[in-house]
Amino acid sequence: MEDLRAQISDERLKVGEPIPSTATLTGVYGVSSTVIRRAVSELTREGLLYGQPGKAVFVQAKPEDVHQEQLTLERLAQGLASLQTQVNTMQSPDREALNDLQQELADLRGTVELLQSQLIDLYGRLGQPYPRDARSSQNPASPRPRQANGA
Length: 151
Hints:
Blueprint: H1 2-9, H2 22-29, H3 33-45, E1 49-52, E2 56-59, H4 63-89, H5 95-125, H6 131-137
Antiparallel strand pairs: 1-2
């Protein structure tokens, strides 16, 4: 296994090319086919080789490239874990504060409606159209101006 890894590393076995057959490797190394298959299986698991059934086993990548990819994946995994920790520790919005803001907004809307109503009434008493109604009356598609109370 180490010799095959070295041959791939120094490009005696190039990426995309097939490695020698199991029979050839058993003769070269003087070991059983079981040992060869286990070595090929381990190199495949590491990402250096891949098999095509009925054809051959091919060199997929150099050990240095696989190692670099593993380091990159580890860095990405660490970054992801860090982000997950940050997301998990973020505080959810304070429900009470959110409810308070919603109540304040509702109160402000009520105040604006009251002021608007009083302005419409004041403009009506003066015999003037309310400015919003005057703008909309210039646009024939808009509704008629509101009548002020007491006009």
